[in-house]
Amino acid sequence: MRLEKYIPIVGEEIINEIVILAKRLKDIRVLHVNSTYKGGGVAEILRGLVPLMNELDVKTDWKVFEGDERFFNFTKKLHNMLHLPLEETITSEEFVYYLKVVYENLTKIDFSNYDVVIVHDPQPIGLVVNKERGQKWIWRCHIDTSTPTPTAWDFVRKFLGSYDAAIFHLPEFVYEKMDLPVYIIQPSIDPLHPKNVEIPDEEVKDTLIKFGVDPEIPIILQVSRFDRLKDPFGALEAFKMVRKNFKCQMVFVGGYAPDDPEGETVYKELLNLTAEEKDVFVLNLPPDSHREVNAFQRGATVVIQKSIREGFGLVVSEAMWKEKPVVGANVGGIRRQIVHGITGFLVESAEGAALRIKQLLSSDSLRKDMGYHAKERVKHRYLITRHLRDYLLIIHKILSAS
Amino acid sequence: MSNPFCFKSELWVTKYTGRSAKNLSDFLEALRTIDQLSIFYHFYINIFNYHNLPTYYTNSFAFWFFKNGLVILAEKVSVIDPLDYYDLEDLRKILIKVVEQNLSLSMLQKELTPFYFITVEREIIDLGCEANNLEEFKEGIKKSSIHSIFYHFITARLNKKTIINDYSSWLHSIGEVKKAEKINRIHPFMMTLYDIKREIIKILGEE
């Protein structure tokens, strides 16, 4: 059983508790619906969670909501409008088209056999029009909706009234007018995923050398897609302040989707800006370069996440799991993952980042202590086993409430 | 033995109460009316969820005061020992009293970073393991998760409205008074649940 593989990581007693809890849900049928099997954090989490729930005899299916380009252009706009107050509006044509696609999906997905339906993010939210008597529907929102565009909120509110509960990553992501019971579940990483699994030191070293990085010189690393909101330019600025006093290298590991012209622009801008810098590496890796990312995180001396705005930023937990102190911007979920002064540092500026990187480069023992606490924090707070337990408990509580 | 010790554990799922405070006036208003389990959550989360907060403050109220530069309030609230209050209403009252006694009117409306009131839904699970003598008891504790330690050492006191933890209570019942008292003196807020577990096992192993 896959679940048993987590025993050496979290302990047998934790897995036993999950097994006992799952027995309370025997014969319950659960359906997750999102809008893609591939790419993105939601699909990655479901790929890990759904098989584990089935192993525990909680019959769980995962289905994908289908739509065409026009539909997804609209839901992308809806997503942005829920995320930020914008000048845009939703037209009646868009609303009608949204409902048309929802009804097309209702003919493809059979909801009748499920006790609990968990709908991820705004795209499939309208499926609840098909809710059956006795069923419980949960809206799992992965984005920050604290300051939505009013028309976007009015749109989702039309459907939210039929849901039984919502789940958000953080309380600060919840709009104050939300009137459903809101559970808080923070996302997680899978320690058995190729991105996080233990790898030999030789592989780490070989990977660094393969990309021209010197394994003998301290490495400052930022892993993130090429996006201005991840502030790679701020990270570079911090690095330049650090290297005045410390011999070190800066490595940017990231990528961008083929349909993301802005990502390509940021990548090229960063590449041009650092073309003459022998100690800066800008690596655009394919999306499945999990072991390479893993190797860079393990080979790093200090990890930085200098985002300007962040949803949750699980890449921070990935580095912490590898016992790395992380210097992170004091935004979004980063501020929840890093305990300032204990597992890393929270900073407000490039200067702040430089100061903390210097502090960490100066002290092996500080890095070691922080790295230890960072891994312990992830072990207790951000692993998939905790996430699984949270889902089981919420399902149990919601069904018991009825 | 007619009185076996049944090992249990406690699991939490957290809920947002929908209430947040952006100044001390809102904070006090919320404290007066918020769900009891929200008070419980914010006092105990640091120990329940090992590594939830910097450990130099014992609860999330105190940490919030500290983050907002209200260090005196942070210190005063940090020394409230929730284990002295098995009734959560009494804990609420003492918290409000300490906050009110240590603020001035000018502080009430000062804008602060928001405090989000979280609450919990608790689930107590039976681990299907019993102890009928001291040796089995010690083995049971060795196999216990930190959540089980939390339940027996901390929250069982609230459920049973007593200031004696479950372990000590059972040890008393089998005549192990010295061990019972030593375990009841362990101060959970100065150590992690792993440390507490080690300390209990050590006490149980003493002659």
Q: Share of helix among residues of chain A?
A: 40-55%
Mean pLDDT, all residues of chain A: 94
Uncertain spans of chain B, ≥5 residues at pLDDT below 50?
Answer: none
Uncertain runs of chain A with pLDDT below 50, 5 residues or more? Answer: none
Treating each run of at least 4 consecutive H or I residues as one helix, how many helices of chain B? 10
By oligomeric state, this entry counts as heterodimer
The radius of gyration computed from the alpha-carbon positions of chain B, rounded to a whole number of angstroms, is 19 Å
How is the biggest beta sheet of chain B arranged?
A: 2 strands, antiparallel
Decide which structural class fits the backbone of chain B: alpha+beta
Strand order of the largest sheet of chain A: 2-1-3-4-5-6
Shape of chain A: globular
Rounded mean pLDDT score of chain B: 92
The biggest sheet of chain A, with number of strands, parallel, antiparallel or mixed sense and barrel status, is: 6 strands, parallel
The class by helix and strand makeup of chain A works out as alpha/beta
**Total number of β-strand segments of chain A?**
12
Amino- and carboxy-terminal Cα gap of chain B: 22 Å
Q: Strand share of the residues of chain A?
A: 5-15%
Q: End-to-end distance of chain A, in Å? A: 32 Å
Counting H and I runs of at least 4 residues, what is the number of helices of chain A?
A: 15
Largest interface, and how many residues on either side?
Answer: A-B, 35 and 30 residues
Overview in brief:
Chain A has 402 residues and is an alpha/beta fold. Chain A has 15 helices and twelve strands.
Describe the structure.
The complex is a heterodimer of chains A (402) and B (207). Chain A has helices spanning 7-10, 12-23, 40-55, 69-83, 92-108, 150-160, 201-210, 232-242, 261-273, 290-299, 315-321, 334-337, 350-362, 364-381, 384-401, and strands spanning 29-34, 59-64, 116-120, 136-141, 165-168, 182-184, 219-223, 249-254, 280-284, 302-305, 326-329, 344-347. By secondary structure, chain A is α/β, with parallel strands linked by helices. In chain A, strands 2-1-3-4-5-6 form a 6-stranded parallel sheet, with helices on one face. In chain A, strands 9-8-7-10-11-12 form a 6-stranded parallel sheet, sandwiched between helices. Chain A is globular. Chain B is an alpha+beta fold and 207 residues long. Chain B has 2 domains: 5-9 and 128-205, no CATH class; 10-119, no CATH class. Helix content of chain B is 51%, strand content 16%. Chain B contains 10 helices and 2 strands; from the N terminus they run E-H-H-H-H-H-E-H-H-H-H-H. Chain B has a two-stranded antiparallel sheet. In chain B, helix 6 packs antiparallel against helix 10 (193-205). The longest helix of chain B has 15 residues, at 146-160. The relative contact order of chain B is 0.19. The model of chain B has no long low-confidence stretch (mean pLDDT 92). Chains A and B meet through helix 2, strand 6, helix 14 and helix 15 of A and strand 1 and strand 2 of B.
